[in-house]
Structures
1.
Amino acid sequence: MNYLEVLRAAAPETALAITVLMVLAVDLTALRGESIERRFLTGALVSIIGCLMAAMFTFLHFGSTDPLHGLLVVDPRTNFLKVVLLALTVFTVLISTSGKFTGHVGEYLALVLLGTIGLMLLVSAEDLLMIFISLELVSLSLYVLTAFNKRNARSSEAALKYFLFGGMSAAFLLFGFSLLYGLSGSTNLPQIAANLAGRGLDPLLLVAIVTTVIGFGFKVAAVPFHLWAPDAYEGAPTPSAAFIASGSKVASFYILAKILKLGFAGAEGSAVWHGYVSGWTPVIAVVAALSMVLGNLTAIVQSSVKRLLAYSAIAHAGYMLLGVLANTPSSQSALLFYVITYALTVLGAFGVVTVVEEATGGDAIKNFAGLSRRAPGLSLCLLVFLLSLAGIPPLAGFIGKFFVFSAAVGADADHLGLLWLVILAIVMSAVSFYYYLQVLKQAWVLDASEGAPAIKVPPVMMLTLVLLAVLVVLLGCAPGLLLRCL
Amino acid sequence: MLAWTIYISFIGVLVLMLLPREAARAARIIALLTAIAGCVVAFAGAVQQANPGEVTTIIKVPWIPAIGASYYLAADGISLVLVVLTGLAAIAGILFSWNIEKRTKEFFAFYLALIGGVYGVFLSFDVLLLFVFYELTIIPKYFLIARWGSTRKEYGAMKLALYSFVGSHLVLIGLIAAWVVARAQTGHASLDLLELSKVSFPLGFQHWVFPLVFVGFAILAGLWPFHTWAPTGHVAAPTAGSMLLAGVVMKLGAYGCLRVAMVLFPEGVRMWQGEIAALAVIGIIYGAGVALVQKDFKFVIGYSSVSHMGFVLLGLATLNTIGLSGAVLQMFSHGIIAGLLFAVVGRMVYDRTHTRDFNDLQTMQLGRLLPFAGVTFVLAGVASMGLPGFSGFVAELQILMGAWKVFPMATILAGVGIVVGAAYILRAMQKAFYSDAPAAAKSGHDHPLEPISVPERIGAMMLIAASLVIGLFPGLLLNWIQPCWNSPLFERLLKGGSL
């Protein structure tokens, strides 16, 4: 084993780890007596420089290498995903800068960056052990980030709930992995598939599939493993929630698809209408259908925008699972396009919520009343983000949906066997339009209460939101820009 | 050149967004200039097009090569007719909303965004692009009604938005399925309308996918029994909103039926021809009958739109050239006339009297107080009844002639609908303007009604002139429409039809 080679492959993660230490050091020494705002801005600057360095390192080694036999696989696709994850982290950090929820600025930013390291290792992993370790690194960071608002009891409650569910799901995942190892004698995904080939679908394998899906179903907040999500989104400081909903989703979906496609190759089964064959696709199909239906229907009755976004995230997890189960050569890029554009959009939406929350003291739908008068730019951004989530063209969300749905239908072009799921998805997406419109109605149609002052949006925040909104529009109008890289 | 109709509208939106909040007057003028520029480009482009029967490409560049989508704008005679209609309706709508004082610039920004989307639908020959523009119109519609509307505006707006969205999602299901089947058959992905129209989809597939796509579009055209958004939406909308809804947005639905559903699935149409005609006739009679008993002036016009759009759908169902030509002509004609009727009811009457209830209007003797409004309504009314000399006559006559060859019974029933149509217009005319009822004791004489303004007069005369010109010289439009039926696009649709 050549350690220099390993270090080169892990250069981005290493750079980020050094940044973590620097952020902590700077905040602890130089910024000790400063105001929270100053500390956040300086800390953010250091973190962003670190992210840019890491992104630069990924660009420098854009080739493919696999120095540790599956523990750390670097190829153009994982490199690109790492850049995406770093970009999402930068946006998360920028959104956090206007936060007043904590005095522990250095620790907060360090945890966000640690989570990012976990995510980056996760997309590079093709080995069960490495997957589990990086997943835990991500999860532990996220638990703490959720609990970061110490003044708010709901934040701690949310974190505890998140942690308990997360611990349980990690146990399930580990159980599934141990079965897989026992069945195949290897922890390397392609090796597992090779060793399992021709064995047929024995009951133990089925248990392994189900427990793996349970473990990841929790990570991506799919029904029926979603119960933590609304509480965590609502209780967590908004930037933490944005991080849970964006970066963590991208990596989790990528690795879920990888495990299922690489590790369980040959055990696909079929979720085709009237042509059911057991395997992992039917399991995913059921979870997807439940998520779409339950997520959308429950979102309708929410009065808190963060909870609404949580249920909409559950619904979107359902649509994304369609991309996982399509399982055709082109479906992976469709899935990644969807997940990445979703992450950008939802970051923006949470950014808007952050501002409104700071200004009005709450995130109830009512608090958005008259936003188009109180903050025209902000409400225009909100319009773009929510319409993209609803799937209105020409925004990125629509194109993503079109890709994923057509990939799912195209998976069985002869009999259109997966059309039933796509019809369900499209019908549910029509339902979702209603609740997004409820929020937009408050912002654009109703008036604020008498004498409500204009909302001042911090410039860094405004810049971030505009950038995100432009990206969402741009990727909708010219999806080729992103699609080419996937 | 025609593509600039779209770009000009969206440039107008951007300019309006950059205006300061107080500049209401500037906003109006910019909006009007944008609409006029769009209309001029539409006219010039239409006249310039050498051969209206052919699909003439305006621009075609790859958009998303992975799924075969391209940015493909083109026009044939049918597009030309509707683009010109959009141009006229856009100007008229702005003239009749000159009195919008509340958040003027936002009103016109949404308005122009809607217009831009409508132009886009009529000029798209890529199915995905058409769908993009089609959905793009939903959002401005919603905000125009919910923000600037009247009676139950939030309910009406939400109902319209959800109906449109559900309809377009039915279309989306059909499009994705058709795309997949076509790709499996031809071996390469394409969303080009001309290429897709050459694919012969399996009959079993067409049997279920055609009604899905057709109904999806027809919801917006007011197909009975999915029409219920139309009266509430029209009534809730501000004047310009209802003018555009009836004038062009309902045409989007009918256009989508013809351009996408019927062209892609010609055998599917034939399987469902009778059912479509039946629903169309029910719509004609039901709309007219309900209009006859309304107490609210605007509901009369709202239901009359359902009735008149029933003729368009009946014309489409005939599947012969004369009926189809009539349907396209009726789209144009109804766009003009309904716009005018809504202008009279919403702007000339309601904005001044603040009531649309016939019982109140009866006591006001508006015929004497607002003679211009009275005369305009009479002219628009007789045009709507289908009196010779106005555009409605030529259109409905052709539809009935086309339908007679295929569905004689339905034709007779539709004729009954015309008679009822005359009745509700006469009733409305009499109650609202020329009632004998004694004037109420404390009628509005102490504060007289504001006189009809210049922009209103110009707008009304423009629309009346358009209807008259087409009524007297239908050849102007028919020369654009009729050659289209020979194009390869409609070959399979008309091949098996009677005539």
2.
Amino acid sequence: MPIEFTLNGKPQAVDVPPQMPLLWMLRDTLGLTGTKFGCGVALCGACTVHLDGRAVRSCQTAMQAVAGKKVTTVEGLSADGSHPVQRAWIEEDVPQCGYCQSGQMMSAAALLTTTANPSDLEIDRAMRGNICRCGTYSDIRRAIHRAAGLMKGA
Amino acid sequence: MSRSVNVSRRDFLTTSSGLVLGFLLKRRVTEAQEVPRALLAGGIDPPPSHKPNAYIRIGTDESVTFFIPRSEMGQGPTTGCSQMLAEELGCDWSKVRMEIAPVDPESYGLQTTVGSLATRTTWVPLRQAGAEAREMLIAAAAQQWNVSASQCKAENGFVINTTNNQRLSFGTIADKASKLPVPQNVQLKDPTQYTIIGKPVKRLDTRDKITIRTQYGLDVRPDGVVYAVMERCPVFGGKVASLDAADARKVPGVRDVIQITGWEQYQMPGGVAVLADNTWSAIQGRKALKVTWDEGGNRGVTSASIRQMFMEKATDGNGAIANKRGDADAALSRAAQKVEAVYEVPFFAHAAMEPMNCTVHAKGDGTAEAWVSTQSPTTARAVVAQVLGLTPEKVAFHTLFCGGGFGRRGEGELSYVFEAAEIAKRVKGPVKLTFTREDDMQHDMYRPAALIQLAGALDAQGWPAVFKASLACPVILKMPNGVDPINVVGLADLPYAFSDFLAEFHEANTHVPVSFWRAPGAAHNTYFAECFFDELCAAGGKDPVESRQRLLANAPRLRNCLNVAAEKAGWGTPAPAGRFRGVAVSDHIGSFNAQVAEVSVTNGRVKVHKVVVAFDAGQVINPNILRQQIEGGVIYGLSATLKGAIHIDRGRVVEANFNTMDMIRIDEAPEIEVHIMPSTEKPGGVGEATNPVIGPAVVNAIFAATGKRIRALPVKPSDLA
């Protein structure tokens, strides 16, 4: 029986096993490859998406837990880069390889919905689950502060 | 301990006369010592010049597209190379787009992005190509106006007649220009005229990465693709003894199970591939496999047994001389005070965030298509071709963006391409092979573990004067003289003016596959040498910065970095309460840097608060990308100093994921203060410059804080108890 949920604002139904992780359903079944595979066990944050507005690791979120809920992936931030987090990431030129940045932006976007003007300590707490092997952490921190400013101005 | 596997792999790497692994490695054999030197100095492989059209396409719509002959793993060459082309071309930077060039050895030479060489190998040819195209555009406009080319200039996408300010846009004359002969001996700009080189222009790859248009290897989904994962023997070199795939085949979504016999002689012993409708089903199917392994002769190997073998090698008196000055042995025997120490490091994994993966379609009609995030597309294409029995030209090859490289996706580390091509050979339609994180961590080609025996002595005034090193380490590049030129980088070429110096190399191979990591050689040797140098300073009661200043009298650029870092960090003034400073320096890949780390140690926990870096890269192409690389290298090196490593037990890797092989995270990232030295010297390498230096700077600061010498990495809380 298809599993129904809301994906990036639109109704979606997929016929996949209930234990299948949201990550692989997004990537392999629907072709939404913006959500990245990094570790498979919720240790790196590359696969972060929003489930009913909360940041979760899609590699450890089974499809049965998604039924009836709202999923936002990085593609759902905006297609044109206009979301304040994306704008800040572009203005600060954050990415090096860029692979982890989907997850970084999703964690940052979730943080900013609950904490309009996060301190460095709040950024540390919200972002320490997201590994960047290239070491863009100072740029990520600057971009989060900038995004907070952009959201205030919006 | 069997070495046969490693040795045969080395033979393969260095003597293959076939297609595999291409020009670079073949050249390494024929030119023995010279090529590694050139590789390290940045002298190899300039793409042929005089083919500006290979690099530049100007559209009648005024678009400017650059084809970049280097891969993008995050270090920014696609932007830096574009800046070089744009500077000489005189185009409008805001109109520039870049693409990674198709594999085409005739136009681009060997396309490989290794050794922090991307800028150094393209610095001359790309500026030349830009200048040649500029002169052709000027010539076309001059013809149209019927004036002399010498009274015309190119600026911001227009050719301008300087006598009357008439303008023709590049787009309107591009077609005409392309039919003109390519000029010889074009004049390159003087650095004082630069408007794009040296400027912090925005990276050209950022927007696509943020709007999710960038395609990494793992994102490829050609029509009809089948997803594969592979089970490999946990003990390196082992192979399948028996396979029962019945249960695996019953897993929903699994389509097939294939035993891959592999390429044992190349240290790719194969395994079992599970093919499925999606990656998750393939992983589930793999869990249901029943495989027994012939683990070979290495199941008893442990990190401790490897260490013991290293120790025996390092002290066997049979080292091959990597470099020598004066007579270190004699000087040590007559020294009043001799300082001795043994330092060591374990294996390290690359751990790029995008796990290894490769997609191949063997079309069965004498052609194939491959999609790979790789640092070395020329060689990767040759690998696919060789496995499929094709010539490279028959493989349509897509070089995709890399979710990190750090050497893992470069020459000599393309096992994942071999495997994918092997699977594709037996499958109709395209196959995507994905490494899970566990596969990636347990079947990497690791940074070599190493052990070094060090001895030193002081001159009559107590300054460091004698330095002797015996390094034992698995070989990456086997050479007739017994010295692996890769693994002695940062040791044989130490910049200090010791009166007596000896560096010896002891080949100490294991069954664990090793290859290039970020800053191979220097990554371990800079730790060894810079920390032992501090031990010599302490033995003579001398200041670490002052001692380095004295012994770097003939290394002015490095000495300048040291002076700036020390001054900016407040060396010699009290650190904030509870914090202590350590210093280290490096002359590596054509660049120079000094770092001062500010560290506190509380209850066995090391906190790195701040790192001051002074960096001389020669001519800077993009100061913001340079800063990113300086910071990124510090974070990468700090992970290998304080966090996870790779250990061997029962012949296999212990660590499997980021819980036991963790890395620096945002809350552990220090403040990094960067000072870039102005310079018009030719550009140096950047990507691998800072990661070797942070380790010794931190470890020397830990000594200042605790009086304890940390002679093995990563630092453990028990070292500090």
